[in-house]
Amino acid sequence: MKEDITDHHILEEYKTNRENGFSLLFEKYHKKIYFHIRRIVILHHDADDVMQNTFIKVWNNLDGFRKESSLYTWIYRIATNEAISMVKRRKNESGLSLDNMSEYFMISKEGDKWFDGDEAERKLRNAILKLPDKQKLVFNLKYYDDMKYEDMSRVLNTSVGALKASYHHAVKKIEDYLNSN
Amino acid sequence: MTDRSKIKDNNPFMVPDNYFDEVKEDILNRTSGKISKNGKKNIVKLLKPALMLAAAMVAFAIISYTVLKLLFPEHDQAKELNYTEFLYHVDEVELIEKLTEQNGSYNSMFVDTDEIIIYLLEQDIEIESIVELLNQEI
Prior knowledge:
The structure holds 2 protein chains of 2 kinds. In chain A, 78% of the residues lie in helices and 0% in strands. Chain A is mainly alpha-helical. Chain B is mainly α. The A-B interface holds A 17-19, 22-23, 26-27, 30-32, 34-35, 38-39, 44, 48, 51-52, 55-56, 59, 114-117, 121-122, 125, 144 and B 1, 4-8, 10-16, 19-20, 23-24, 26-28, 30-32, 34-35, 39.
């Protein structure tokens, strides 16, 4: 299982053979990263662009990677920043506010085209889309990626206390939305 | 649209068929294309645009020089004539003496002035033959 390969092994392999090391890294992380990005940008073609940019940046900067942070949080940080930039770009292009963007994703056929959830999942998706940006990120990383607050703190550059508060508020808002719809 | 994520059972997003295989191939091709066999960035590829520009400029300069030479052949002849005329009126002994006066180190760096004069006399070398040699080099 490629997911079982440790980051240490990947970095050691990268030292001796860059391409093999990067290939192992890609195998381990690409699906997790794709769906993390997808939950932020929603649309597949945007997620595809962002994922490719993310891994090209990883490739270009892996030589300078410092082991102060883990490879896992470092890659998530790059992916998150790239995905947020994409969302901002889309907002600027469409001239829509954040709330309107959420509405757009919720009602657009493009948004539904690649969505295979049942009614409960659709409601959950719409509830998440209603959240403020930061709460949406925190909820996704906790709920879907099962990320520890300490790691999330490095990815989002936010204190653990603030992240716990964001998650708490996000869960409360989602519950309220599901109960009222 | 059947390749549903297996990462988390509750992930509702789908991706196109074979998407992950194709994107993997695409990204690995893009990254492997940026390095040479020894793992270093391929300098030739990086400098290719600059090298092509430099080559184009050199080619342009050569073509321009050739065209100008063909169109204005008298230009070189005039230059050669002026140069020959100039040297014709210069006395070689006087020239060497002047050089020696202007730069004392010149003499010590190379050969003694008298040695040059003796050499020219012994070899029976005239100023015209020196001019011819210089013109050939031009």
